[in-house]
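Retry 2 of 3 after timeout on previous attempt. Resubmitting structure tokens to design endpoint.
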């Protein structure tokens, strides 16, 4: 089924005889209620996760039936959007009993969603659609207790996002002009843009990007540079197979194109008072946020030791290796180890990043930063944990990946 032929099942609109509950704006639930809510939400979501595609399709059918004007907030091609919804739900479900961490994430998400011109009624409509979709696919397993848990969970989500958006006084998005575009491999491009107004972001974070070739199809990318006084930001983009946005950026972007950038998001950061040695692990263009951290750290007077493993399938995939090796000349605190799964490279290791890193030890004395594809992050963290690394020492942004 192509993007152009995607169909939605439009359920009957809610009526007075069969109302769908609008998740309310609620106070944060007590600790005991949060534990029980988390248990019910996780168990019920696991029961429908195998039907993710159908659930997403039904969800959007309800959403656009209840709130027709919400359709204009989404791109014409909804295939990728359905996947993004489920990834967001999975991430929130995993964090539902970690209120501080969840509040930080939802606050960022709420500020970011201002660029869509989201209104209060859209939050209500999303809640109605979510409850309707879960109720339909859980069928007889849907109970009043389960409904209360999901209504409460979505109430927390909606409350945090709305409050964060309401408190934000900065722009909803920034205009950025492409000043440089160059292919560094067949499917990786380095793009430099300049913003008209300063975009405050933290090295290691990420921002949402909309390009003129793909209107309303926002995607997350990490700047590969720390903030500069001249307003320039560098992005490294890999044209993934089937990636509408990434392929347009790599193969069709030209200097003079005007992008829109959303506010800064993400949890990766290194404070200038950091003294603990660092281990950084970057796969492919996932090295971009780590490059931004190194760019920022290169301006500090004192730096902790940093060992960066940069991996790719083949030697030619290590497009930033020359830049990293050049950085080691001026930054004696930095060590760089290239890793390839196929072929060899001077001074490099052979194998997956997960294997290359853990065969050198457990790195128990270091804070660990991991960035790359979802599968690479999962495999690397699993290996590190098996080797004895403390999970609390591992930092990554799983939701940034698209």
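Retry 2 succeeded. Sequence:
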């Amino acid at each position: 089924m192509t993007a152009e032929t995607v169909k939605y099942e439009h359920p009957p609109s809610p009526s007075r005889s069969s109302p769908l509950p609008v998740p309310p704006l609620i106070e944060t639930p007590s600790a005991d209620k949060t534990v029980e809510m988390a248990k019910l939400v996780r168990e019920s979501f696991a029961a429908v996760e195998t039907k993710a595609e159908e659930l997403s399709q039904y969800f959007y059918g309800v959403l656009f039936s209840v709130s027709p004007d919400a359709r204009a907030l989404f791109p014409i091609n909804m295939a990728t959007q359905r996947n993004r919804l489920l990834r967001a739900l999975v991430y929130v479900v995993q964090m539902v009993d970690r209120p501080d961490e969840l509040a930080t994430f939802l606050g960022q998400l709420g500020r970011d969603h201002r660029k869509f011109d989201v209104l209060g009624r859209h939050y209500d409509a999303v809640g109605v659609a979510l409850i309707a979709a879960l109720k339909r696919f859980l069928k007889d397993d849907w109970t009043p207790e389960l409904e209360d848990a999901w209504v409460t969970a979505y109430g927390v989500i909606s409350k945090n996002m709305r409050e964060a958006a309401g408190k934000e006084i900065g722009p909803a998005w920034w205009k950025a002009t492409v000043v440089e575009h160059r292919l560094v491999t067949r499917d990786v491009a380095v793009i430099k843009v300049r913003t008209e107004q300063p975009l405050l972001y933290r090295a290691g974070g990420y921002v949402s990007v909309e390009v003129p070739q793909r209107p309303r199809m926002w995607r997350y990318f990490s700047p590969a540079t720390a903030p500069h006084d001249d307003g320039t930001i560098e992005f490294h983009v890999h044209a993934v197979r089937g990636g509408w946005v990434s392929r347009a950026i790599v193969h069709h972007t030209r200097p003079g194109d005007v992008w829109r950038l959303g506010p800064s998001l993400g949890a990766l950061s290194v404070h200038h008072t950091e003294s603990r040695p660092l281990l950084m692990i970057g796969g492919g263009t996932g090295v971009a946020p780590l490059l931004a951290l190194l760019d920022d750290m290169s301006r500090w007077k004192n730096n902790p030791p940093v060992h960066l493993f940069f991996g790719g399938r083949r030697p030619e995939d290590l497009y930033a290796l020359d830049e990293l090796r050049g950085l080691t000349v001026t930054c004696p605190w930095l060590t760089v180890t290239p890793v390839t799964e196929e072929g060899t490279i001077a001074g490099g290791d052979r194998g997956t990043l997960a294997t290359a890193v853990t065969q050198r030890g457990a790195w128990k004395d270091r804070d660990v930063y991991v960035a790359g594809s979802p599968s690479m992050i999962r495999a690397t963290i699993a290996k590190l944990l098996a080797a004895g690394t403390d999970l609390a020492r591992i930092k990554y942004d799983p939701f940034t990946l698209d």
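Attempt log closed. Confidence is low (pLDDT under 50) at residues 1-25.
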